[in-house]
Design goal:
Layout: H1 2-41, H2 46-54, H3 59-95, H4 102-123, H5 125-128, H6 131-161, H7 170-194, E1 200-201, E2 211-217, E3 224-229, H8 230-252, H9 254-264, H10 266-271, H11 276-302, E4 304-305, H12 311-324, H13 329-353, H14 363-377
Antiparallel strand pairs: 1-4, 2-3
Helix pairs in contact: 1-3, 1-8, 1-13, 3-8, 3-11, 3-12, 3-13, 4-6, 4-7, 4-11, 4-12, 6-11, 8-9, 8-11, 9-11, 12-13, 12-14, 13-14
């Protein structure tokens, strides 16, 4: 019996890792093939001639040279979106409504984690911490942010959503939008009273800003160096660990079985002795904690945050959840990786192929175009199952 349980536990750990690898390789190969085809067809165009003048290489060589770095950046961003999207998916799978306030839960986690690190920096402990100590303080910041975000999410469910549980679906949706605006103002008020600043910048500490050289690509001129920042590695590893842990909790534990039961049929689950309210609160706790951790990782990657920091990543994570299949854990992972890759490719190559007419600032358009296309042609998403079905 113990061997069976151990093999099941190992399966629920290795299976999501295999899926992540498959999704990363598949999405990377798909977008790489599309860019290669576009570059091949653009040979001899104005963009090709401009690159020959400025970089001494054609558009095909330039596209292939930039490709590894773009894939790394897309993978990093994709895992962040996937971690946020899981919060949307968990709540929808259990209650079947979109928690639009999840973006502010993400922002709360970002602010709590950054303020914790700023406080530690003022005490001088971050500067004195060695390489191992800097990682320890980052883990502490993640833990504090997860506790704060998870607690706010549970409080939000208890006060704003539970009284409306049996109301028409539009009512809790309106409540979620109201909670979202309220939490934005709470963050602004707290920051105004405590720091008097609108923007907060994560302290520089440890070796997170250093780059690890991977390899270089010969181009005939200066070789193109491919590297990855240490903080990008941290973001990827942390996101992967959280996604694996969530998959294990949902699919290999008793409380995960209870979550799937409540998602499938709340009334029957209650008759079988499952505490529905407790399970729903636990779902918000897990989703909120994941969102808070994603907020800290986002702040680590992009360094600066403000009270509205959750809006755009939240909308993109929602798009990722819809793309993969809202209510599906595996779908949220797939959608996040695909969207991260799409945004990275658009940001890197859009200006090149349009000769600067459209820069990287237009990359956000693609995320919302994907949302519109999916809603029109495949509303259930790429996978389209619910969290009640074992992924």
């Amino acid at each position: 019996m113990r061997k069976i349980l151990a093999s099941e536990a190992l399966r629920e750990i290795l299976l999501p890792l295999g899926r992540m690898a498959l999704f990363v390789v598949g999405a990377g190969a798909l977008f790489s093939a599309i860019m290669f085809a576009l570059a091949f067809l653009s040979q001899g165009s104005g963009a090709d001639k401009l690159l020959l003048e400025t970089h001494k290489m054609g558009i095909l060589a330039y596209t292939l040279g930039q490709l590894p770095q773009v894939l790394i950046d897309g993978m990093t961003l994709g895992f962040v979106y996937a971690a946020i999207a899981l919060g949307y998916t968990m709540v929808y799978g259990v209650l079947e409504f979109i928690n639009f306030a999840h973006s502010e839960i993400f922002a709360i986690g970002a602010f709590v984690g950054v303020e914790f690190l700023i406080f530690m920096d003022r005490l001088g402990v971050l500067a004195a911490a060695g390489p191992l100590g800097s990682y320890m303080y980052l883990v502490l910041a993640l833990a504090v942010a997860m506790i704060a975000s998870g607690s706010v999410a549970v409080l939000m469910e208890r006060t704003a959503y539970r009284p409306l549980r049996n109301s028409p679906r539009l009512v809790p949706l309106i409540s979620a939008i109201g909670v979202s605006f309220a939490l934005q103002d709470v963050i602004r008020m707290v920051e105004s009273l405590t720091t008097g600043q609108f923007y907060r910048v994560i302290p520089t500490f440890g070796n997170f800003d250093e780059r690890v050289a991977l390899f270089s690509i010969p181009t005939g001129g200066d070789p193109i160096a491919v590297n990855i920042q240490v903080k990008s590695i941290v973001v990827i590893v942390a996101a992967v660990l959280m996604l694996v842990a969530l998959n294990y909790i949902v699919n290999a534990t008793k409380i995960g079985k209870a979550i799937r039961s409540v998602a499938q049929d709340r009334t029957t689950a209650a008759l079988m002795g499952i505490g529905v309210n407790g399970i729903i609160s636990f779902t918000f706790l897990i989703g909120g904690a994941l969102g808070g951790a994603a907020g800290v990782l986002y702040a680590l990657k992009f360094t600066r945050i403000d009270p509205f920091v959750g809006f755009m990543p939240g909308m993109k994570a929602f798009t990722a959840a819809v793309l993969g299949g809202i209510g599906n854990l595996t779908g949220a992972l797939l959608g996040g990786i695909c969207l991260g890759m799409l945004e990275s490719f658009a940001g890197a190559y859009l200006g090149t192929f349009t000769m600067g007419r459209f820069g990287s600032e237009y990359k956000d358009i693609f995320a919302f175009l994907i949302l519109i296309i999916v809603i029109i042609f495949k509303p259930s998403g790429l996978l389209g199952e619910q969290v009640s079905q074992k992924a």
